[in-house]
Structure to design on (244 residues):
């Protein structure tokens, strides 16, 4: 389980998130909506533990352990994984090398090939990671790495942005595998938090709870499909009436 209490985060001294509360239980997938610049990426980076994102108040508890001060690599080892909105190109590092690092065991070529096969990226394994990859290929490669890592908490930053419809369907299937959607909820070990700008991912991934973030605060929590409808009809300001 993930519990975030009154989390307040600053970047270079500027407060971006204010008193964010959020609970995600085993087996659940939740979606985070919000306009550009509202602080969605900041929340994911703070949960993952990037040092630029300074927690000035509140705490993050994962699997009953207070991880607020834990370094990023220890959080990854505890079972938190993240796919970035805009992952960097890393010249000289092949996709296969990153997948091998993410795999805890069985780092053999066949396992890596199988994983790449799922993401339709076999022919990309010996290319520099993300170098010349299309939008869809970058997103698939991020999720391929997560499939290798098998985190218990998966953080996805706009997995559908810049991706065409065919790619969204494949990405949706990969996310469902990552979040064990075939398993009954009480048997699942994994949970997910997905940032979505357009809500397109909701057609492929089943999520019961959504949040709206505005100016660094969670202003609404509820059924993600209803939230999306409200945003489309009345804009983000229209969501503020959902405050509970
Ligand atoms: P979102 O993902 O919702 O679009 P972000 O979390 O990326 O929003 O950004 C939230 C706010 O934090 C924005 O106003 C952005 O300009 C600011 N911000 C992000 N990164 C930095 C940084 N490194 N230095 C200063 N401000 C930043
Ligand atoms: Mg963002």
């Amino acid at each position: 389980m993930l519990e975030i209490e009154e989390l307040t985060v600053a970047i270079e001294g500027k407060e971006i998130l204010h008193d964010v509360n959020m609970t995600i239980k085993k087996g659940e997938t939740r979606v985070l909506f919000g306009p550009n610049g509202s602080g969605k990426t900041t929340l994911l980076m703070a949960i993952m533990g990037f040092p630029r994102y300074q927690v000035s108040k509140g705490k993050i508890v994962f699997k009953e352990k207070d991880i607020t001060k834990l370094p990023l690599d220890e959080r990854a080892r505890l079972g938190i994984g993240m796919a970035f909105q805009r992952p960097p190109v890393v010249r000289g590092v092949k996709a296969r090398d990153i997948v091998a690092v993410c795999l805890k065991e069985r780092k053999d070529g066949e396992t890596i090939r199988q994983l790449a096969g799922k993401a339709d990226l076999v022919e990309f394994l010996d290319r520099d990671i993300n170098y010349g990859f299309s939008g869809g290929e970058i997103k698939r490669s991020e999720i391929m790495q997560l499939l290798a890592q098998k985190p218990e908490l998966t953080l996805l930053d706009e997995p559908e942005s810049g991706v065409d419809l065919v790619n969204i369907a494949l990405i949706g299937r990969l996310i469902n595998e990552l979040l064990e959607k075939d398993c009954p909820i009480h048997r699942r070990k994994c949970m997910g938090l997905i940032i979505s700008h357009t809500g397109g991912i909701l057609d492929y991934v089943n999520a019961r709870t959504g949040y709206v973030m505005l100016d660094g605060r969670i202003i609404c929590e509820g059924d993600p499909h209803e939230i999306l409808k409200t945003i489309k009809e009345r804009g983000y300001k229209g969501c503020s009436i959902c405050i509970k």
Notes: Residues 4 and 60 are 5 Å apart (CA to CA).
